């Protein structure tokens, strides 16, 4: 669920409490969370609603000037149902703190096992070490260039980097990525493992 920056700021300030979307099926669920550029949002409710039942109060709660503006936006897309998504700011992105937290021995072992599983399950072969090495050598480089240099399609590369980011191993920059302190530690452990295997 993509949310514009001005709407995100309104959610953080508590001025915006709902979002409306037209979907074939919802992309968020009640009780879930959504990571955004401003932090984590809590999804408090997701309900199908009839466009004709929306009110001026709904429009205001979603950050629109009036009901006509909300209806116009929702009417641009014809397929799918209209959903009301109740949201609130839940706090900073938990991955931010994770990036600086160096793993203890058990956490490191668990992360190395997860990376090995990702490598084994990948249709393009092992990628985790190559991606981390490339990001370490070339921070702030376009994803398309990094992907090409390791022989991977850009969408797959970006998906894989998001997996690493979920473990707190990488940070997104305005352009490209860099390894976090946690990522540097895990990369060093991967190198040590490969050294042991030689």
Topology (SSEs and partners):
Blueprint: H1 5-13, E1 18-23, E2 33-36, E3 39-49, H2 56-61, H3 67-75, E4 81-91, H4 94-100, H5 105-121, H6 128-137, H7 143-149, H8 154-166, E5 170-172, E6 177-179, H9 181-197
Antiparallel strand pairs: 1-4, 2-3, 3-4, 5-6
Helix pairs in contact: 6-9, 7-8
List the keywords.
198 residues; alpha+beta; Arc Repressor Mutant, subunit A; four-stranded antiparallel β-sheet; two-stranded antiparallel ribbon; 48% helix
Distance between the termini: 45 Å
Structural class: alpha+beta
Please identify the top-level CATH class of the largest domain: Mainly Alpha
Q: Which ranges are low-confidence, i.e. pLDDT below 50, for 5 or more consecutive residues? A: none
CATH architecture of the largest domain: Orthogonal Bundle
Shape: elongated
How many domains, in number, for the residues?
2
Fourth CATH level, the homologous superfamily of the largest domain: Winged helix-like DNA-binding domain superfamily/Winged helix DNA-binding domain
Helix content: 40-55%
Question: What's the helix count?
Answer: 9
Taken as a percent bin, the fraction of beta residues is 15-25%
The CATH topology of the largest domain: Arc Repressor Mutant, subunit A
What's the helix-strand series?
HEEEHHEHHHHHEEH
Q: Using the CA coordinates, give the radius of gyration.
A: 21 Å
Number of strands: 6
What would the average pLDDT be, to the nearest integer?
94
Largest sheet: 4 strands, antiparallel
Strand order in the largest sheet: 1-4-3-2
């Amino acid at each position: 669920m993509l949310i514009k920056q001005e709407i995100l700021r309104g959610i953080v300030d508590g001025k915006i409490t709902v979002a409306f979307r037209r979907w074939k099926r919802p992309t968020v669920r009640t009780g879930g969370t959504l990571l955004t550029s401003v932090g984590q949002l809590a999804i408090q409710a997701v309900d199908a609603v009839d466009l004709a039942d929306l009110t001026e109060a709904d429009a205001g709660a979603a950050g629109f000037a009036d009901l006509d503006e909300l209806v116009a936006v929702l009417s641009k897309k014809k397929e799918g149902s209209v959903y009301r998504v109740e949201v609130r700011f839940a706090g900073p992105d938990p991955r931010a703190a994770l990036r600086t937290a160096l793993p203890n021995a058990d956490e490191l072992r668990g992360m190395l096992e997860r990376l090995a599983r990702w490598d084994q399950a990948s249709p393009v072969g092992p990628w985790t070490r190559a991606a981390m090495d490339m990001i370490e050598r070339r921070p702030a480089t376009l994803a398309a260039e990094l992907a090409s240099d390791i022989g991977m399609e850009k969408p797959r590369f970006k998906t894989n980097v998001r997996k690493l980011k979920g473990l707190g191993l990488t940070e997104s920059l305005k352009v490209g990525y860099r390894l976090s302190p946690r990522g540097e530690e895990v990369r060093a452990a991967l190198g040590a493992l490969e050294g042991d295997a030689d």
